[in-house]
């Protein structure tokens, strides 16, 4: 069975649906208990538990509830996340910086630490962490978010090396801009201009949550049995492009 944090919406919800499609039981752990339970009621997941991944006691309680219900765990997707405020650095507040790091980086650490014993007891497993293009290149004003995502990519590698011989694979996915509420919010608040974004993206569009879910499912599956410590870009070519000007201009016309 699989656990998806932040599974009540966006990429996490698409991932829960992908596991269900593969016949895998799935639990979602989300800070929004009402929305998470609604997902179970509508058939997107088997079990919902309220959890703030940044809080140690909340993570421990969620994993205890999961253990009691299923008694085993085969895959964990550390997906829960929040955006950051896009303020100029000189206006950024320490509390907000800390909160972003806590949800993403501390949350991924806590959830991994608490679930690994259960996966070891289950005979092994797979962790997939959600990084971002923001952890690969510099996105101005997004200090905390970029630092958290870069930290997640690095922690992915260190945990992968630590647990490889014990049957737990640890990988990360680094999405580009994906069509979820998080990105809609950025657009509505004026932080992302879609036409500029599309011209910067070789594939010229947003990714769909299901396209990220597909890769997460692959990394959790036996098809990825020799893959560990990888940070896989799923970004329509965004991180590959380093030329000046629009990515479209650099393409060979038909
Ligand atoms: N959407 C993108 O373009 C994009 C790009 C790169 C990476 N990501 C990453 O993908 C992940 C999912 O993003 P999304 O776009 O689907 O976001 P979303 O806002 O659509 O969904 C996030 C979910 O996480 C939950 N959540 C928030 N804080 C939490 C906490 N402290 N504990 C538990 N649950 C919490 C929310 O309730 C929500 O259900 C995040 O880690 C995000 O940083 C998203």
UniProtKB/TrEMBL annotation:
<dbReference type="InterPro" id="IPR002347">
    <property type="entry name" value="SDR_fam"/>
</dbReference>
<dbReference type="InterPro" id="IPR020904">
    <property type="entry name" value="Sc_DH/Rdtase_CS"/>
</dbReference>
<dbReference type="InterPro" id="IPR036291">
    <property type="entry name" value="NAD(P)-bd_dom_sf"/>
</dbReference>
<dbReference type="Pfam" id="PF13561">
    <property type="entry name" value="adh_short_C2"/>
</dbReference>
<comment type="similarity">
    <text>Belongs to the short-chain dehydrogenases/reductases (SDR) family.</text>
</comment>
<protein>
    <submittedName>
        <fullName>SDR family NAD(P)-dependent oxidoreductase</fullName>
    </submittedName>
</protein>
<keyword id="KW-0560">Oxidoreductase</keyword>
């Amino acid at each position: 069975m699989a656990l998806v944090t932040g599974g009540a919406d966006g990429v996490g919800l698409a991932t829960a649906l992908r596991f269900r499609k593969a016949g895998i039981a799935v639990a979602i752990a989300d800070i929004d208990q009402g929305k998470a339970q609604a997902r179970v009621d509508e058939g997107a997941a088997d079990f919902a538990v309220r959890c703030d991944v940044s809080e140690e006691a909340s993570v421990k309680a969620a994993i205890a509830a999961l253990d009691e219900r299923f008694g085993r765990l085969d895959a964990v997707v550390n997906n829960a996340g929040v955006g950051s405020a896009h303020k100029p650095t000189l206006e950024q507040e320490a509390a907000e910086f800390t909160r972003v790091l806590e949800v993403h980086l501390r949350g991924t650490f806590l959830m991994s630490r608490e679930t690994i014993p259960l996966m070891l007891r289950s005979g092994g497993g797979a962790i997939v962490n959600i990084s971002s293009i923001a952890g690969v290149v510099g996105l101005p004003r997004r200090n905390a978010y970029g630092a958290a995502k870069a930290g997640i990519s690095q922690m992915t590698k260190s945990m992968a090396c630590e647990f490889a011989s014990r049957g737990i694979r640890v990988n990360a996915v680094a999405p580009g801009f994906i069509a979820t509420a998080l990105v809609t919010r950025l657009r509505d608040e004026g932080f992302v201009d879609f036409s500029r974004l599309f011209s910067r993206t070789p594939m010229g569009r947003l990714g769909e949550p299901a396209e990220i879910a597909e890769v997460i499912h692959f990394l959790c599956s036996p098809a990825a049995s020799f893959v560990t410590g990888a940070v896989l870009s799923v970004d329509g070519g965004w991180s590959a492009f380093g030329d000046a000007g629009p990515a479209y201009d650099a393409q060979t016309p038909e």
